[in-house]
Amino acid sequence: MTDNDSKVEKKQISILGCGWLGFPLAQRLLSLHSTWEIKGSTTSASKIDAFAKNGIEGFLLPLNPGFDVDRVALHSFFDVDTLIISLPPRLQQHDPGFYVKQVESIISEIEISRITNIIFISSTGIYPELNRIVVEDDVKTPEASASPDMVAAENLLTALRPERNVTILRLGGLLGYNRIPGKYVQGKKDMTTGSIPVNYIHRDDAVGIIMTILETGFVNETFNIVSPIHTTRREVYEASCAQFGWEAPTFAESNEKPDFKVISAEKFDKHYHYSFRFSDPLHFYYSLEDGGA
């Protein structure tokens, strides 16, 4: 038993969407808290063995938009104290409202479960380009959002308060390891967005922040989660291309500044004490392989 195990009571946690973020989170939790029980869901049968090898109880849970699985498995997955929902919306692949229906299906299971604590992974993509610093209260309704379905889903979950603790995390662009910004723009010509400040978060810090909440306690709040330094896209693209020997994009000169937003994470800082591993996106850790937790 580790020191942390002796200080923090045993927890049972399910991660709905145990993928690029959820899987390393589960690995990290188990490495620090050997008595915690972690369950993870996936829509890919090939991942179940990897879960088992890492001490994660795996569940194959398609959500189309309801759960296409037997009740025994579904009850077992939701039979926990804490649920982390890391469900990519994939809004371009589905009709409007599909994501909201998925979340409605999740809530139906939460309401008949013993779950008391919920973390919902949302996105700073909900904010329009307001050409200023933006805070959580700038978007509360789908009508005010650049992603109405995401905000509608958030609001469905916050309606579970105060009977359950619901923390909403609006993550910035999630990068690190094999998600390398330069990879997506290498060789592009005359880009016009080089001066835009980025709102990024490294996966290691996203994992660390979720762990901080799990270890120190939940609050019924919505938080922006981004690195505190907002480097420009041009700097980030050029640096990451240089690191891997890729052709850097070029940038067109323009008298008109493109629309932008700078996401503030001050609210989270007021509630939790967390020290970033990667405060500046110019110095994120990348590798051609995923790298695990």
Describe it.
This is NAD-dependent dehydratase. It comes from Dyadobacter chenwenxiniae. The chain has 293 residues and is α/β, with parallel strands linked by helices. The longest helix has 14 residues, at 98-111. The strands form three sheets. The chain has a seven-stranded parallel sheet with strand order 3-2-1-4-5-7-10, sandwiched between helices. The chain is 30% helix and 16% strand. The chain has a single domain (3-176, 200-228, 261-279), classed as 3-Layer(aba) Sandwich (Rossmann fold), CATH 3.40.50.
- Look at the helices and sheets and give the structural class: alpha/beta
Low-confidence segments: 1-7
* Domain module count: 1
Strand content: 15-25%
Order of helices and strands: HEHEHEHEHEEHEEEHEHEH
> What would CATH call the homologous superfamily?
NAD(P)-binding Rossmann-like Domain
How many helices? The count is 9
Mean pLDDT: 94
Number of strands: 11
